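Protocol step 4 of 5: obtain the predicted structure for the target chain.
Materials: sequence only (see below). No template structures provided, no constraints applied. The aim of this step is simply to have a reference model before the mutagenesis design in step 5. Sequence pasted as it appears in the construct record:
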Amino acid sequence: MTRRKTIYDIAELANASPSAVSAVLNGSWEKRRISRKTAERVKALAEAHGYSRNIQASVLRSARSKIIGMIIPKYDNRYFGAIAERFEATARNHGLFPVITCAQRDPELEAAAARELVSYQVETIIATGATDPDGITDICRAAGVRSLNLDLPGSAAPSIVSDNRGGARDLTLKLLDACHGTAPGQPLLFVGGRATDHNTAARIAGFRDGHADRGIEVPESNILACGYAGAKAYAALDAWTGDLPRGIFVNSTISLEGVIRWLGDRGALGADRTLFGCFDWDPFGALIPGNVGMARQDVNAMMDEVFRVLGSDQPEEKVTLIPCNITDAG
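Step 4 output (structure tokens):
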């Protein structure tokens, strides 16, 4: 069998020092003032010869792994997909190696994922949308690993979350104003999510705030916090006994599928029938007739804040709210 290439072999082929090759392969070459031409030559040779850095050996030598982990709840969601993509790019720009695992909103899987990441000697774990963020923080603290919460807050580590209440209020006002010409003073329906979840509870509060700003009372029966799945949104609307609503606040793009199917089945889909707004953004959802606007969470700003906090020596265990952007339809 052919002997596996070492960093010294790559250095000889590239006519560079082993330390320069190491800097290129670990992403710190720009700080070392190594030329881009040399860096590209080293990367090309490493790829051509199938070289991969021995991470465990590197950890033993430097006492730093430069590995950063993220636990996310779902893959099949544009919002969490955008977070994962931005996390990977930002981590690499900071000279870190990102590792992502999905825990399916299961606290036992979250804990198992945290322990597994710790075993790989990660330096930091970011718990995104975790059901038990403080449990993950406890595991990290016991292992001497930093932790941070994203999307859902915890009490034991810094948390960066969207301003769900403010975004929901702004979207509610936009939808109420759009419905005013044909249904002045009529409250909207709120569909989707679980009232016990932090984000849904904050959005319901913002939904009520928006109505209060317009002097409109919201009956409890107009809050259909039925779960996130599209089928559950459809069933909740089907069981609703009121008249066809003029406006619907949809709590997530996951629930939006059920809302659109329900409106379509009743011939109520369109700008001249039932209008809707959705918390969180989807490019196809923005094109559906009757869409007034969407609350788009600022993933870039959230990730910038994550790495700003990680760069501080003693971050406060507080919740940082990142404003949402209210987009127009189309």
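Step 4 remarks: Confidence is low (pLDDT under 50) at residues 55-63. The first helix runs from residue 7 to 14.
Proceed to step 5.
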